[in-house]
Structures are given as C-alpha cells and as structure tokens.
Design goal:
Distance between the termini of chain B: 36 Å
Strand order of the largest sheet of chain B: 6-7-8-3-9-10
Order of helices and strands of chain A: HHHHHHHHHHH
Largest sheet of chain B: 6 strands, mixed
Structural class of chain B: alpha/beta
Number of strands of chain A: 0
Oligomer: heterodimer
Order of helices and strands of chain B: EEEHEEHEHHHEHEHEEHEHEEHEHH
Distance between the termini of chain A: 30 Å
CATH superfamily of the largest domain in chain B: P-loop containing nucleotide triphosphate hydrolases
Shape of chain A: globular
CATH class of the largest domain in chain B: Alpha Beta
CATH topology of the largest domain in chain B: Rossmann fold
CATH architecture of the largest domain in chain B: 3-Layer(aba) Sandwich
GO molecular function (chain A): ABC-type transporter activity
Strand content of chain A: under 5%
Transmembrane segments (chain A): 21-39, 59-82, 103-128, 134-154, 166-189, 220-242
Shape of chain B: elongated
Structural class of chain A: mainly alpha
InterPro entries (chain A): ABC2_TM, ABC2_TM_bact-type, ABC_2_transport, Nod_factor_ABC_transporter
GO cellular component, one term (chain A): ATP-binding cassette (ABC) transporter complex
Largest sheet of chain A: none
Number of helices of chain B: 12
Number of helices of chain A: 11
Largest interface: A-B, 20 and 29 residues
Organism (chain A): Lentibacillus populi
Helix content of chain B: 25-40%
Radius of gyration of chain B: 23 Å
Number of domains of chain B: 2
Strand content of chain B: 25-35%
Chain lengths: 252, 323
C-alpha cells in the first residue's frame, strides 16, 4: 500500500537522523538507568519493614516505563520546529506523499526510541530480581507504544503551531509535570488524599499507568487494562487525526 | 501557446475578523509553457503567498488557479506530481548527505532506484555539484546548497518549477552562475516561475514579468516593454543637504519639468533631453551653492518603472516586512 511505503520512507529518514545524534542516543539510554541506579534505592526504606530490591523494582519499573514513553514522544516538537525552519516541511508538503505518512514516520521512530531503552530497563531490572511476565510485558509495551505515539503526534503538532522552540518547551514542560504527577508514575496515587485521586481520574494518562501496572504484574484480564486501552487508543486516534490536519497546513 | 499556469481573480486574506490582511488582491495572469516568468516586488508584496497557493501549500480565499492543467484546490495531488518548488528556506536536510537528500526526493515522487540514480548523476553534473554528493548538506556553502535544492526540486522532471527568491543570500558571482543554470533549464523546455526583489535578476532572467506591490499587479510585460513605458533617460540627483530641496524644486519649476519624483533628498527626472538638462542642473547648483552628493544619467531600469508607478524605490521596500 502507498501509505505504508511512504510511512516507511519517512520512518527510515527519521531513524537515520536520530541515530546520527550520538549524544542524544546515549542520554536517552542513560536516563532510565540513572533512575534505577540512583532513585530506586531511596524507595527501599519508605515502608516498614524495608523492601528488598525486587519489591522496589516491582513498584517502580512500570512507572519508569511510562516516563520513558512520555519523554520519547515529547522530544518531537523540538525537531519539528527545526524541520519547519529549514524548509523541510514545505519541501515535503509539495510532494504528492501522504501527510499521514509524514506524521507517522516520525511517530513510529519515537516508538522505536521508546522500545529500545524500555527493553534495556526490563533486562537489567530482571537481573536484579524483577519478575517478568511475558504476555503482560508485551501488552504493556504495546500500550506504552501507543502512549508514545500520542505524545509524539501531540508534541510535533505543537512544534508546527508554535514554530518556536521556546513556545513548545514552555507548553510541554508545564503540562508534563502535572500530567505525570497526577498519573501516579513515581508513587501510587492511592497514597494521596481524596481530592488528588479525583484530579487523577480526569487525567487520561492515569488510566494508562493503572493498566500498565496491572499488566506488569501479569494480570491481563481485568477492568483496569480494558479501560486503559480504550482511553488511550481513543485519545491517540483523535490526536493523530488532528495532527494530520495540522501537518496539512504547516508552513514556515 | 500552451498555458502552464492560469490564475483568475485570485485573492488571499489572512487574519481574523478584527484584523484582515490582504496578501493577494484579486490578481489574474497567465504563464506560458517554456518561459521564465517573474514576480518582482518588495517584501510583503504577496509574491511568496501567491507561490504558496500555486504549489498547494496555502488555501485560496477567492478566485481560481490552475497549474499544468489541474486546479490547485480540487486537484491538489495531481498538481503536486507536476510541479517542483524551491522555497526561500531551501528545504535540503542539513543533517543528511546531498545524495540522501536527492534519493529521498526520488522516493517520494515514486521514481525507481535506477531512474533516481541516473538523474542524480545527470543533475549533479548539470548543476556542478557532482563532487559534493557524499558531503553533508550543512557543510555546503550557500551557493552549493542552493544548487542542490534546485536539483531536489527538478529531480522528478516537473512541468513547472517554482523558485522563491532563488538567489537571496548569494554573492554576485554565485548569482550570475545560478542565472545561467536557470536559463539552461528553460532552454530544456521547463516552465519557470520565480519571485525576486532584485531588479537585475528580473531583468536578466525573465521572458515576462509582473511587478507586484501590496498584493496588486501594477505592471506586466517583457522587461524591454516595461522599460519602454518610461520614455527617454533617467536623471538621479542626490542632495548633500536637505535645506537645498526647496531651491532644487524652484529650478524644476523654472525649467517646467513636471515629471519629478521626490524621495527625501533624492530626485529622479525622466526626460528625453538628458545631457542638456544635466548641464543646466550643474550650472544652477553652482550658482546657488547647492552641494550634490550624486548625479547620474542612465537608461531607465526596472527600478525606475517601479518608482514611476508607485513613487517609491523598490530597493527601500525590501527592508520592511521581511518574513
């Protein structure tokens, strides 16, 4: 199919571009490892009696994976501003290639940029005793890949709309913190007061994180997983449709 | 003659209900196959906007536009297969090699690997960058990058090529060199529509041109036709002191020269008796102790055409409203 062929062309272009930025590749891989090495030991003593490493990882790794999905996707806005300012977007838009394919090329690259460090995190964690449930993990990675797609499309579109790195950065960082805090990524929302829990339920990402945690435990058939997939898939589809329209109008 | 582009009553307005900006104001024109056609005008005249409409990048507010026989609104995808476009920004990916950039274009237009390879070879020789193919675009000079970008725009052998300010930022030598290349493309049968705010460029390159100002067409024809509209020669005078302006005007009154265009301390006069008049002016200024910074007698240029039509120098207009 034409769209698949074209998506592949854009995907390869984006992948090459990323692979050439060695510094970013290294920093992308380092972040999750630093979290595991430098942050997870802090969690050991927050309960009485203290947890062992495997227990800490069980609580913490699903959150790291969501964080990875988020950060892999949101970087797109920056490169999009660059592509726009150097005229690349206009140059691509005057070709007959599908606009959806242009969008998806970058989005799928971000999925790869999520899956690689995610796999490394899982492998290393399992060495420290983190229990891997194969089917659960695969479904979890699928769900998080969809979340990456959503953030990637969203961030890229903001880049095209703002046309300015400063603007994109301001919007993304100001949304990133409340979104991640209210999703219970680092610590469970159930630790918090009622009002915080209510707020969390308005955050679509919360459902993704809940489903992600259940899947990590190896629990596949349950309400959280079902709701998580529905919420995330619906929002991602809406985002992709909107982004394609933004792409279709973008000029420098 | 076959029409490559036909535009009728085209309008484009930006902005919201509070503030409307008319970028293109009800213009109509035709470009014929195989000619170099230019839009000449200051920044903000609507040149880029018109090109973006014709290349399907922008919607239309009013009127119709056909490119290579297809409507740009209803048949956008077909138009895209038939045109090439090199924007002011260029669009070559700096973080990819020249070869990769051209290969990407080949793929996006659905050319086979063999055909793409052949054309890259041919175009890199035609446009003099064969030895640069494996270089990263970010390492190229402005002129080299521009030639690569033009190759990118014509790899799929479009019927119509759009060039937006193709020589902006190039030094005079590179500019003259690129003009030769553009003419070569025309001689091979391509229709070329370019925008420029350089008079020399419009003059040297165009078979026909339109002078655009504030979204409106103010003149249309061949460069020679347009210059003929201004009879005789042009005398340009620049004063050293603004207090002498009144005295100069008295002289013009005395000599009954009506056709004077005044811009600050500059006066431009169109006359059929150039030499005689220059002699008068010298005599008069000596007598009244008026100091001249500059005086020249020349054949009218396109700048004079613009000046005569709008009362403004085209050169000055370029500084404001840069996008």
């Amino acid at each position: 199919m034409q769209v698949v062929r074209e998506t592949n062309i854009f995907f390869v272009r984006k992948l090459k571009e990323s692979a050439r930025q060695i510094a970013w590749v290294i920093s992308g891989l380092m972040t999750p490892l630093l979290y595991i090495l430098l942050f997870s030991p802090l969690l050991k003593n927050i309960t009485h009696p203290a947890m062992n490493t495997a227990q800490v990882l069980e609580m913490f790794v699903p959150g790291i994976l969501v964080l990875l999905a988020f950060s892999s996707g949101t970087g797109t806005g920056w490169t999009m501003v660059f592509d726009l300012k150097s005229g690349i977007i206009e140059r691509l838009r005057v070709t007959p290639a599908s606009r959806f394919a242009m969008l998806m090329g970058g989005v799928l690259k971000d999925v790869v940029a999520f899956l690689i460090p995610a796999t490394i995190v899982l492998v290393i964690s399992s060495l420290f005793g983190y229990e891997v449930h194969l089917v659960g993990i695969l479904l979890q990675l699928l769900l998080l890949s969809i979340i990456t797609m959503m953030f990637s499309a969203w961030s890229g579109s903001l880049g095209l709309i703002f046309q300015d790195v400063g603007g994109v950065a301001a919007v993304i960082t100001s949304l990133q913190l409340p979104l991640t805090l209210l999703a219970g990524i680092l610590l469970p929302i159930s630790f918090g007061p009622k009002w915080l829990q209510v707020l969390a339920h308005i955050n679509p990402l919360y459902y993704g994180v809940e489903a992600s945690k259940k899947l990590a435990e190896g629990s596949i058939v349950n309400q959280s997983v079902f709701v998580g997939f529905i919420v995330i898939v619906v929002i991602t589809i809406i985002t992709l449709i909107w982004s394609t329209r933004v792409y279709n109008k973008a000029i420098a | 003659m076959v029409k490559a582009i036909s535009v009728e009553n085209l309008s484009m307005t930006y902005g919201n209900k509070k503030e409307k900006i008319i970028a293109v104001d009800n213009i109509s024109f035709t470009v014929y196959q195989g000619e170099i056609f230019s839009f000449l005008g200051p920044s903000g005249a609507g040149k880029t906007t018109t090109q973006r409409i014709l290349t399907t990048l922008l919607p239309i507010s009013g009127g119709t536009a056909d490119v290579a026989g297809c409507n740009v609104l209803t048949d956008a995808k077909k138009v895209r297969t038939k045109i090439g476009y090199v924007s002011q920004l260029g669009g070559a990916d700096p973080n990819a090699t020249v070869h990769e950039n051209l290969e990407l274009s080949g793929k996006l237009y659905g050319l086979s690997k063999d055909v793409t390879a052949q054309r890259i070879d041919k175009l890199s020789k035609l446009l003099d960058f064969h030895e640069l193919l494996s270089r990263f675009v970010r390492t190229l000079s402005g002129g080299q990058k521009r030639r690569v970008e033009i190759a990118q725009g014509i790899l799929h052998e479009p019927k119509v090529l759009f060039l937006d300010e193709p020589t902006t930022g190039l030094d005079p030598q590179n500019r003259a060199n690129l003009w030769q290349h553009i003419k070569k493309l025309r001689d091979n049968g391509m229709t070329i529509f370019l925008t420029t705010h350089y008079l020399e460029e419009a003059d040297a390159l165009s078979d026909r041109l339109i002078i655009l100002d504030h979204g409106k067409i103010i003149a249309e024809g061949t460069p020679t036709e347009l210059k003929k509209k201004i009879s005789g020669e042009a005398i340009s005078i620049e004063l050293k002191n603004s207090r002498d302006a009144e005295k100069m005007k008295q002289l013009f009154n005395q000599l009954a020269i009506g056709n004077v265009i005044e811009t600050g301390m500059n006066f431009t006069i169109y006359t059929s008796k150039g030499e005689e008049l220059v002699a008068h002016i010298f005599e008069y200024t000596k007598e009244h102790h008026i100091e001249l910074a500059n005086i020249s007698l020349s054949m009218p240029s396109l700048n004079d055409v613009f000046l005569a039509l709008t009362g403004q120098e085209l050169r000055d207009g370029g500084k404001e409203g840069e996008q």
